[in-house]
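User: Reviewer 2 asked us to show a designed sequence for the structure in our supplementary figure. I'm pasting the structure tokens here. Could you produce the per-position amino acids so we can include them in the response letter?
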């Protein structure tokens, strides 16, 4: 069996002690039938020789950005286009920093910038370097742009330290690469997702809004694409890049979000409402900027439609997943929303006091009829992947029950 037969993989190797493991990774990928083109940084060459990798892959290793001989055969832009997947293993702290900054100072960083292929990185570094705020910020930025992270592992390190920062074993990276090319659990399924806040206009320059950054919803979009779903993301005003492979519809107000959702819902298998939709909007938005003519200002607000409840009430309804943002009694309120909105599943989070909204980490209590599961505090990217797994489990179980 050759699960990667004919796949074009670009293997980037950067300069860390774990570089020696890249030879084994290249061997496993070649054994799986992949065409593997190795690109090494200068620092990587201090740890492993190009001859070894050339012998394993059957292709000359590429190192230099400006190499007349190689550019004549396959230039760096062609190489960037050739790759179906870019794997950087090991990925040093330095490489992650350059990639996050979008720098193109050598062949590997240039390829990462020039390619439209997904980028997968397997970090390897000293545990203090991995834990450093700069590295964590770089990793979070890369993940928010759709870069996938494999590891790192925890354990004894070459420098004598113990902690996170070891590169995953080549066989684990091979497994992850195989999984990317296998059919996802949501292949052929359409998933509609809302994310971010809504803004309800008071006048031409002011609005009522909330603190949702869109991070949770955008992380879900990325996790859904990784499962092969065709994802439509209806996003309120946020400053996040569109995850790779996602169709995005930008809206401002709850009414616009409702319209975009109802335009997109036909054919949807799963609807996930992660947006923090304003429950009320000003009864009328002033046409001109409101002036300070008195000491107090009374606003009349009217209820916005509940988009999630309306979708769940459709005769041909998708599998409906809601969120519940609660400051107290999280489980009780979430249970009540699950029933009142007739949902298939609800993901409840505690919000307020630097929780839930805006922050990078979150925790969820996921509830469905007859079961629940707590997902502990962790980066929203990882949490999203776990939530998607739970959603697909329930969705598959419900689909199977309906078909019997
Ligand atoms: O965006 P981040 O900064 O990453 O923060 C993430 C989050 C905290 C916003 C997210 O995890 C979350 O909890 N989203 C739902 C917020 C919310 O509005 O919860 P709610 O309990 O008020 O609403 C319940 C459900 O009804 C939600 O699925 C909501 O999308 C939906 N709803 C609410 C009102 C409305 N008019 N229409 C709706 O569809």
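Assistant: Here is a per-position design you can include in the supplement:
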């Amino acid at each position: 069996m050759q699960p990667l037969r004919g796949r074009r993989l670009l293997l980037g190797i950067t300069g860390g002690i774990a570089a020696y493991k890249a030879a084994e990774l290249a061997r496993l990928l070649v054994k799986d039938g992949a065409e593997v083109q190795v690109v090494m940084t200068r620092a990587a060459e201090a740890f492993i020789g190009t001859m070894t990798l050339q012998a394993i892959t059957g292709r000359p290793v590429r190192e230099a950005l400006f190499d007349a001989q190689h550019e004549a055969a396959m230039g760096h832009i062609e190489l960037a286009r050739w790759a179906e997947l870019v794997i950087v293993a090991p990925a040093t702290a330095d490489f992650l920093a350059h990639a996050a900054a979008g720098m193109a100072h050598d062949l590997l960083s240039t390829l990462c910038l020039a390619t439209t292929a997904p980028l997968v990185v397997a970090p390897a570094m000293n545990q203090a370097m991995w834990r450093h705020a700069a590295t964590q910020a770089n990793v979070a930025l890369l993940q928010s742009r759709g870069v996938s992270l494999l590891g790192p592992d925890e354990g004894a390190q070459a420098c004598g330290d113990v902690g996170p920062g070891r590169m995953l074993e080549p066989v684990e990276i091979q497994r992850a690469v195989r999984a990317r090319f296998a059919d996802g659990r949501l292949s052929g399924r359409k998933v509609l997702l809302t994310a971010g806040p809504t803004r309800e206009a008071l006048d031409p320059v002011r609005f009522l809004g909330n603190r949702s950054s869109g991070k949770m919803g955008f992380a879900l979009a990325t996790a859904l694409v990784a499962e092969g779903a065709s994802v439509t993301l209806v996003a309120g005003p946020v400053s996040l890049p569109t995850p790779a492979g996602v169709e995005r519809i930008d809206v401002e107000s709850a009414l616009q979000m409702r319209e975009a959702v109802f335009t997109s819902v036909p054919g949807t298998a799963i609807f996930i409402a992660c947006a923090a939709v304003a429950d009320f909007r000003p009864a009328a938005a002033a046409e001109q900027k409101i002036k300070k003519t008195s000491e107090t200002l009374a606003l009349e607000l009217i209820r916005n439609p509940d988009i999630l409840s309306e979708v769940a009430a459709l005769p041909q309804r998708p599998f409906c997943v809601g969120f519940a943002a609660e400051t107290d009694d999280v489980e009780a309120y979430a249970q009540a929303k699950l029933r009142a909105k007739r949902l298939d599943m609800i993901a409840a989070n505690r919000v307020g006091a630097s929780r839930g909204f805006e922050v990078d980490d979150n925790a969820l209590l996921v509830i469905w009829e007859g079961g629940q599961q707590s997902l502990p505090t962790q980066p929203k990217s990882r949490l999203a992947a776990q939530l998607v797994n739970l959603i697909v489990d329930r969705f598959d179980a419900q689909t199977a029950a309906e078909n019997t």
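For the response letter, you might also mention the following. The chain has two domains: 8-181, 190-280+297-402. The two ends are 34 Å apart (CA to CA).
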